[in-house]
Please model this.
Amino acid sequence: MKSVSLKQGQHWVIQPPNWLGDVIMAQPAIKAIVAFAHSQQHTVSLDGRGWLKDLLPYLNLGSSVAIAMQMQPSSMTNTTIVLFPNSLGSAWRAYRAGYQQRIGFSGQWRSLLLSHPCKPQHNMRTEHHRDYFLDLAAQIGAPIDNRDVTLQAPELARQTAHNLMKSNHLDPSKVICIAPGAQYGNAKRYPATLYNRIIQSLAAQGWHFIALGMQEEHDICSQCLHGINTPYWNSAGTTTLAEALALVATCRLLLCNDSGLMHVAAGLGQPVVALFGATDPQRTHPSGNHVNLIYNPADCSPCLQRECQVEGHPCMSNITPAQVINACEEALQFK
Model:
């Protein structure tokens, strides 16, 4: 890789990955690049999906990092963009925008569009995504002081979460959040009927529940919460990402599938019980001190498919409700 030409007064734009969980796994790398750029007296901003503005306060990057404003080509002199997405399209858009320095991993026929193509030293298909992202930061020259995800929740967000819980008749000291969906596909979802058995058992102990998810996951959340006798709130499709992040940061436990919120909660140091099946925990396990990851693989695991092609969804049905209940009861002792 050619050395990056650093000039005084230069502005760096970092484009994080496109999925919430991947952004969290890239957080140590992004933080290292931000610190490196600041050490050279450069300014830094992030440019990505619209929801990034809600996530930024949690990324622990310092108050000087903002969301990038749309720049005109004439303003791109002495401007660098670091591309975490590996697509040809992301490199093409950076090239067309006129960024003077375009840094990213080579591949997908995009090396000619990058001024500084980097050859990956880690295989994203077999190694952890966090190490893959950190490799890009290291090749830029950023010192890696911490390889773990370290998020922080704004105090205002915690107060927002308390207010939301109370307005929905929930005791904030007793709230368990569940995230039974998975945007990638049904193969990552633990069956709603089994979630319901777990929640019924925990409800009998007096815990309250918030179900988190997208609008299309509202029915799944309803199935998970059906018939419980303690207060609950099915918030799927009714909360913003900012509100969901606040609720995850404030609850007593997050019970979930392999998902973006899993990485958020773990990075905040929250107790997490995460259920893996179709995906490989060696590649995407969350970074946190209070994470109980349950993975009872089937012969076909990890298939990495969006939809299960095997009768009975064995990678998930191998995980018993009793196993999950025990993990939740243990995790609830942390706080």
Q: What stands out?
A: Residues 168 and 233 are 7 Å apart (CA to CA). The mean pLDDT is 90. The radius of gyration is 21 Å. The longest strand covers residues 11-15.
